[in-house]
Amino acid sequence: MRQSHAWERLRKRYDQLWSGAIGRIRAGEIQIDPVLQARTPDRRRGLTLIGRPSPGVRQSVSAFLRELRRLEPDQYYYTASEFHITVLSLFTATVDFKPFFARRQLYVAAVDAALRDVLPIPITFEGVTASRGTVMIQGFFEGDKLNELRNALRRWLRLGGLAKGLDQRYRLQTAHMTTVRFRAALRDSPRFATALENVHGRFFGTTTLRDFYLAESDWYMSRHATKVLKRYRVI
């Protein structure tokens, strides 16, 4: 099947990440997350609209992570219940979250408006990419429905005077799932890099996003720190 322009654009972005990271990972030149390294509770909180992968995708990704954990047990691995696709961080997780949370209902109203006419969004999870600090599952979508939703959210947030903290880290345009974060030096970095190369093109399954969750969470969307404010179902 001929791949769409959106698919090729996403693949180009994932390939850029991969080519910039895999050699550094092989050399052991990773970025270790200081909060995870210290193994202390994350005090940062943010507000994010997310989607969840299907049970089949969760099962495939969990099997992949078990393979990696056997090689590098000291790293931080997401659990199946924590897997998510970030639609948009309404504000980036911060220790100074109270002023943002005081305006929860305004954020809910903005998300309500942005999701009013949204249709389900199919996503295919195929391949693995990486940065110096993370391992990610590549997500692909046809057309531009996901980014149109993101732009609608941005528009409604700005109209509501809620632009502070928006797109603070980077302007999200992909549909990846972060699954591993580095919190310690790699025991055998060449072996770990080879393991990633061996699954670089693996197919993990497809998901149609029909349910969206507005969630308060820490930086990692960890299970113990995530609270769903509202669930949205689109048809």
Q: Could you explain how this protein is built, in words?
A:
This protein has 235 residues and is of the alpha+beta class. It has seven helices and nine strands; from the N terminus they run ααβαββααββαβαβββ. It has helices at residues 5-26, 34-38, 55-71, 98-101, 104-114, 145-159, 189-198; strands spanning 45-51, 76-77, 85-94, 121-130, 134-140, 177-181, 203-209, 211-217, 227-233. The chain has a five-stranded antiparallel beta sheet with strand order 2-6-5-4-7. It has a four-stranded antiparallel beta sheet with strand order 3-1-8-9, covered by helices on one side. The chain starts with a helix and ends with a strand. The mean pLDDT is 94.
Question: What attributes does this structure have?
Answer:
single chain; 235 residues; alpha+beta; Cyclic Phosphodiesterase, Chain: A; 4-stranded antiparallel β-sheet; 7 helices; 26% strand
The tally of beta strands, per DSSP, is: 9
Average pLDDT reading: 94
Radius of gyration: 18 Å
User: Structural class, from helix and strand content?
Assistant: alpha+beta
Gap between N and C termini, in Å?
26 Å
What shape does the CA trace take? Answer: globular
Count of individual domains: 1
How much helix is in the residues?
A: 25-40%
The low-confidence parts are: none
- Strand residue percentage: 25-35%
CATH superfamily: Cyclic phosphodiesterase
Order of strands across the widest beta sheet? 2-6-5-4-7
